[in-house]
From TrEMBL:
This is Acyltransferase 3 domain-containing protein. GO terms for molecular function: acyltransferase activity, transferring groups other than amino-acyl groups. The chain crosses the membrane at residues 12-34, 54-71, 92-110, 154-176, 183-204, 219-243, 255-276, 282-298, 310-328, 348-371. Keywords: Membrane, Transmembrane, Transmembrane helix. GO terms for biological process: polysaccharide biosynthetic process. Residues 13-338 form the Acyltransferase domain. It comes from the Bacteria. One of its GO terms (cellular component) is membrane. The keyword Membrane applies. InterPro entries: Acyl_transf_3_dom, Acyltransferase_3. Pfam families: Acyl_transf_3 (PF01757).
Length: 402
């Protein structure tokens, strides 16, 4: 039997709260439009409703940190294949129980994918079951992956690609000879290489993008819904973890945390003011998040704010909240519809908006308690038994952000 390290990695409350903030930003941004009671054109343009980009940047950056925290200590040099398989078993346990429910709901909702003997339905459903739907520039039912029947699951697909990249990267780094500042040099080189590849993919888009795609389609897939640009955010999170391995004075860690929160607020403020938008807000948000990650264990004001009971609870259920929030707005408390955004329309919109958030939290709580946690525990226990891993009682709590 292979015994796992018994070092306890306690939950970092502020990071759980940060997940809650990210989930709330995404839900609020989506629900402003999804709970409308007027035609889209009559809905007031609210700049803060574009906060989904910032929320997703927090998620992906935090994911890089947590994956590095949870799995960097494994023996990637002597047992590379074993640990890569173990990584995917553990991530499968984290994502799939709730995701399987999501898939079933999607299939029951959309008649065109219900006949699984139909090759067209198979070509639609299978990539989503395997969570590789966003890895390549493919449309489903004529829609980009984010607008197709499985909508928000694009981010899970991106996460899976990043898990694979992390595992392969950990193996490569472990096999290389050691030298001073190796991790830093390789991290900077990797970041720059990804940046150049993404830039080249945009520059040569006419040769790369599928027939029938517009520049706008390619832009959205490449910069927002594929794993490639998002990998920059993930890598920043991994770098933040590596930075925490260097002993920092408490004042420095606290300052990093405070600046991180100020940075996120500034990014959101610049977005509201129109100085940042969908095209350039994600990377500044990711950089600000790095500060919060580096100072996550400090006694900062930011950490105290992020450790509040309510926001930590939202962070605890954030995966289910994110995954299932699209199904709630159709359950509106009323069917009123207005041609203009009058005072009465605003009142009904507010009722839909607030009640949908409340219902989403209730639904996510049920999925988390009844499916997500039991499913994760069941799968991980059997994965450990299959792999011959003996788990200690003190195991990492932070398992991911999706």
């Amino acid at each position: 039997m292979l015994a796992m390290a018994s070092v306890k990695r306690e939950e970092i409350q502020s990071l759980t709260g940060l997940r809650g903030v990210a989930a709330l930003l995404v839900v609020i941004a989506h629900y402003w439009s999804w709970t409308k009671v007027t035609p889209q054109g009559a809905l007031p343009d609210m700049p803060w409703a574009g906060a989904a980009d910032i929320g997703m940047a927090i998620f992906f950056t935090l994911s890089g940190y947590v994956i590095a925290l949870s799995y960097s200590h494994w023996d990637w040099r002597d047992r590379p294949a074993f640990n890569l398989i173990r990584l995917f078993f553990y991530r499968f346990a984290r994502l799939y129980p709730a995701y399987l429910v999501f898939v079933v709901i999607a299939i029951l909702t959309w008649p065109d994918i219900q006949d699984l003997s139909d090759p067209a339905a198979q070509s639609y459903v299978v990539p989503h079951l395997l969570l590789w739907q966003s890895w390549m520039p493919v449309k489903y039912g004529g829609e980009l992956v984010s607008n197709a029947h499985f909508n928000v699951s694009w981010s899970l697909s991106v996460e899976c690609a990043l898990y694979l990249a992390f595992g392969l990267g950990a193996i490569v780094v472990a096999l290389l000879p050691a030298w001073r500042f190796r991790s830093f040099i390789l991290g900077v080189a990797g970041f720059y290489a990804i940046w150049l590849l993404v830039d080249a993919a945009w520059l040569y888009r006419q040769s790369l993008m599928p027939a029938g795609w517009s520049d706008g389609d390619w832009y959205l897939w490449l910069f927002h819904f594929s794993p490639f640009t998002v990998a920059l955010q993930f890598l920043l999170g991994v770098g933040a973890f590596r930075a925490t391995l260097v002993p920092l004075p408490s004042t420095v860690a606290r300052l990093a945390s405070e600046l991180g929160l100020i940075g996120l607020i500034t990014v959101q403020g610049l977005t509201i003011a129109g100085r940042l938008d969908h095209s350039n807000d994600a990377l500044p948000a990711a950089i600000a998040t790095v500060g919060l990650l580096i100072g996550a264990r400090s006694g900062s004001i930011a950490n105290r704010l992020l450790s509040g009971r309510a926001i930590v609870y939202l962070g605890t259920i954030s995966y289910s909240l994110y995954l299932f929030h699209p199904i709630i707005p159709p359950m509106a408390l009323h069917n009123r519809f207005f041609e203009t955004y009058s005072t009465q329309a605003a009142a009904f919109h507010a009722v839909n908006f607030v009640s949908s958030i409340g219902l989403a939290i209730i639904f996510a709580t049920g999925v988390y308690r009844l499916i997500e946690v039991p499913g994760r525990q069941w799968i991980r226990a059997r994965a450990d038994r299959l792999l011959g891993v003996q788990r200690s009682l003190a195991t990492p709590v932070l398992e991911g952000t999706s």
